[in-house]
Amino acid sequence: MNFNMNDQRNQMGELMQEFIPAMLSSYENMKSKDVFGITDKALIERLRSIGIPKEGRPLREVFQEMLDSVYTNQAYLQHPRCFAFIPCPVSPLSWMGDIMTSAYDLHAGSWMLSSGASCIEQEVIQWMCGLAGYPQTAGGLFVSGGSMANLTALAAARDAKLTDEERTRAVAYVSEQTHSSVAKGLHIIGFRRDQVRKIPTDSAFRMDTRALRKAIEQDTKDGHRPFVVVATAGTTNVGSIDPLTEISALCKEHDMWMHVDGAYGASILVSSKYRHLLRGIELSDSISWDAHKWLMQTYSCSAVLVKDLTNLEQSFSTHPEYLKDAAAKKDQINFWDLGPELTRPARSLKFWITLQVMGTESLGQMVEHGFQLAQWAEDELKKLSDWEIISPAQQAIINFRYAPKDISENQLDCINQQIAQEISDSGYAGIVTTELNEKKVLRICALHPETTEEEMRKTIRLLNRYACGLSSRLSD
Ligand SMILES: *Cc1c(COP(=O)(O)O)cnc(C)c1O
Q1: Mean pLDDT of 163-174
Q2: Over the stretch 436-454, which tens digit does the pLDDT of each residue have?
Q3: Which residues line ligand 1 (CB under 6 A)?
Q4: Mean pLDDT score, 262-291
Q5: What is Dmax (Cα atoms) for the chain?
Q6: Ligand 1 centroid distance, CA of 402 (Å)
Q7: Closest ligand 1 atom number to CA of residue 232
């Protein structure tokens, strides 16, 4: 063999000593960076031309190339003025935990392979279950994201509620604002598209429970088997929270599983000021909860919680002969028996480190700052003429559009699209559009603890400046 791992380790030591302080100051100077880095074509071509070499290259050269061409070429979702999609403000504590965890390369599949990490995962999950108001029977595990959490919970729902014979006539209920990962998950676990009902939402984008009741009753009459309702606590588009208590009552009445997709919004439970908004979540059977959205974790870090842990065991434990030596004993837990993954990273450790150092109170205050940011945006918008609020500030999200009179709907769609483009091109803030009530609207989702009131207000004033420029060009 013509490589020497000792040499590699020595060279790495030097590079890592430069890397960590450089990275910390990069986070410190994040506000001076453009939110959306523009990927230039020449750079991509250069990357493509590298290829996979037969003979190795010097470490320092590869290291520098990664910094210059790959890592820094991104839309910074962790930027304090990134208001697009669901941003991800990241605590350096989380990436420190990531570095440590991947350095130790723990296998978090079973107690035998990583008892300390398994214990921490149990502790964090129990804390989350407690916030959700779940009883002692509850549990769960960390998975890669909200999509996997939804899929995992839906598999448990299917196995808990349906016989093999019922599967082909089973029906699941979502709303018009349910995240697309739910339909994807249902598809992956074997349901046809015609087994998913999209229930309309009310004027505040919450699932219309009268329409839900009607659909369930009709389906039952038609010989279908309603088995799960997916409620959302904090929709991705507008932050709306479905009527959890009413949905739970309908589920109980019809022997259905209630899943709450809280990938985005369950983090509100950490805030003592706003947790009351999620009242009713304790009545659900399962919850998805992303820590890599509103709780400052690096990707990927998401929990799926179930009210009765035996439901996950029934769906996911396999006990093959080659894992018998690692079977869990009393009071131990093998996470590979609770979810789809066998080999899995210890995703809870970085979160644990963040929780230990920050404490839950300041994490809660960070969530509350998001609410405040959206409120400031709304306040600034209300000072301007020609702007229309489509969905008011709630859970750190606000949707609005520039809508002066005498401009056609088609043109308004174009102008609003253009406004989002101009502010994003400017590098100052990242804003993208979405669609609500068949209109193209601007959407701000603001979660970063370091975003200031002045930055939020300036963003709105900038949007207005671009809007006025565009509409005056239109009337020329
Ligand atoms: C983001 C989101 C998801 C998907 O989560 P990933 O972590 O991206 O897989 C699911 N549901 C809701 C409501 C979300 O906001």
Answers
A1: 98
A2: 999 999 999 999 999 999 9
A3: 86, 145-147, 179, 181, 232, 236, 261, 263-264, 290, 302
A4: 98
A5: 78
A6: 28
A7: 13
- Residue 432 pairs in a beta bridge with 443
Write the single-letter amino acid at 408: S
Q: Is-above-0.85 flag for pTM? A: yes
How far CA 89 is from CA of 8, 172, 239, 298, 451, in Å, comes to 33, 34, 18, 9, 10
pLDDT tens, 368-395?
Answer: 999 999 999 999 999 999 999 999 999 9
Residue 142 alpha carbon to ligand 1 centre in Å: 14
Record the tokens describing residue 296, joined without a space.
């400052």
Residues β-bridged to residue 229: 173, 258
| Distance (Å) from CA 145 to ligand 1 centroid | 7
- For 178-205, give the DSSP string: S-HHHHHHHHHTT--GGGEEEE-B-TTS
Q: How far is ligand 1, taken at its centre, from the CA of residue 238, in Å?
A: 13
Give the nearest ligand 1 atom to 290 CA: 7
Sign for the CA dihedral angle at 410, 415, 420, 422 comes to positive
The rounded Cα 422 to chain-centroid distance in angstroms is 26
* Number of Cβ within a 10 Å radius of residue 64: 12
Query: Strand, coil or helix: what is 280?
Result: coil
pLDDT at 326: 77
* CB burial of residue 371 (10 Å; 0-12, 13-18, 19+): buried
Determine the pLDDT at residue 323: 80
Ligand 1 centroid to residue 263 C-alpha, Å:
5
Give CA angle at 281 (110, 167), nearest 5°: 70
Q: Tokens at residue 88, please?
A: 């991800």
Q: Tokens for 274, please give them.
A: 């706003």
324 DSSP 8-state letter: G
Task: Count other C-beta atoms under 10 Å from residue 216's C-beta.
Answer: 22
Question: 225 with 162: CB under 8 angstroms?
Answer: yes
